[in-house]
Write a structure and sequence with these properties.
The protein is α/β, with parallel strands linked by helices. It is 41% helix and 17% strand. The protein has 10 helices and 12 strands. The strands form 3 sheets. It has an 8-stranded parallel beta sheet with strand order 1-12-9-8-7-6-5-2. A two-stranded antiparallel ribbon has the order 3-4. The longest helix has 19 residues.
Length: 287
């Protein structure tokens, strides 16, 4: 039986964890993909800070769906040893936060670099990450992101099959990379999808929209996942800024009365996803 648990990047609400929880409370969302908390990127949070944050989250009934790390989002001239230290910290934080997953990327190649040669660098680094994660109970997942090695479906498939890793499927990122999200990318990668990032986008210009208001055909994607018995997280990543079109599209929504800003954009994203899910016969889970 399928189960779609809603989570999200709550740092798009506010930089501070307490405010993030204040906004999530009335939405009923009890999972966070932690990327930024108390004005710090998660990769730089100390062990002591993580224990204190985890205690605050637990006291209010929150859990962490994934560490939203920046690992693998590194430019060619970056210091890999320093990056590796951040990864080791994220691995430790995942255990402290009891997070089952770490979100990761597959590196930026140099401008004009032969991607067939860059593939070896990506695989070598990921093999090291996977070796370090062995026995920890933490699963590393790759997210497709514009301009990294794994930005297109074919290269995501290569990484999944070669490394034996699961994928985070971000439909808007595929649109922004020039790929067709559905059916092409989705059907190519479906059996490797372990986690979803939820934002939509317009194919004509890549601008981000709430779920169901772009060209990703998220309704069809969720329906197929539901038929396949998917169990996992749908993680909101609104990236909306001020989405003024929502008031015209959903004039009856109480969200229209909210002050512009992160809480409003996040509420729009959550409301849109829940509406879309129910329109295709899926009841969202929150825990």
């Amino acid at each position: 039986m399928s189960k779609f648990i809603i989570s999200g990047f709550a740092d798009e609400i506010d930089p501070y964890l307490n405010k993030q929880m204040d906004v999530l409370d009335p939405l009923g969302i009890r999972y966070i993909e932690i990327r930024g908390a108390d004005a710090k990127n998660i990769s730089t949070v100390t062990e002591a800070e993580a224990h204190e944050m985890h205690a605050r989250l637990s006291a209010r009934g929150y859990k962490i769906s994934a560490i939203g790390s920046p690992i693998g989002k590194m430019k060619p001239d970056g210091d890999f040893d320093e990056h590796l230290a951040l990864f080791k910290n994220c691995l430790n934080l995942a255990k402290i936060f009891e997070a089952p997953y770490i979100r990761m990327f597959s590196f930026y190649p140099a401008a004009g670099e032969d991607l067939t040669k860059f593939r070896d660098v990506v695989l070598k680094r990921w093999e090291l990450f996977l070796k370090l994660a062995e026995g920890t109970g933490v699963t590393l997942l790759h997210e497709n992101e514009k301009d990294i090695y794994g930005d297109m479906p074919e290269r995501c498939l290569d990484l999944a099959e070669t490394l034996g890793i699961g994928l985070i499927f971000d439909p808007a990122n595929f649109i922004q990379s020039g790929a067709t999200t559905y059916p092409d990318a989705f059907h190519m990668l479906k059996k490797h999808i372990r986690y979803m990032h939820v934002k939509d986008a317009l194919a004509e210009n890549g601008s981000v929209r709430p779920a169901g208001y772009g060209d990703a055909q998220l309704g069809k994607i969720l329906s197929e996942l539901n038929e396949d018995g998917f169990e996992g997280f749908l993680s909101l990543e609104p990236h909306l800024g001020h989405f003024h079109g929502f008031a015209e599209l959903e004039p009856a929504s109480k969200t229209n009365m909210m002050e512009e800003g992160g809480p409003k954009s996040y509420t729009i994203a959550a409301e849109s996803l829940i509406k879309l899910m129910r329109s295709v016969g899926i009841e969202p889970s929150f825990c």
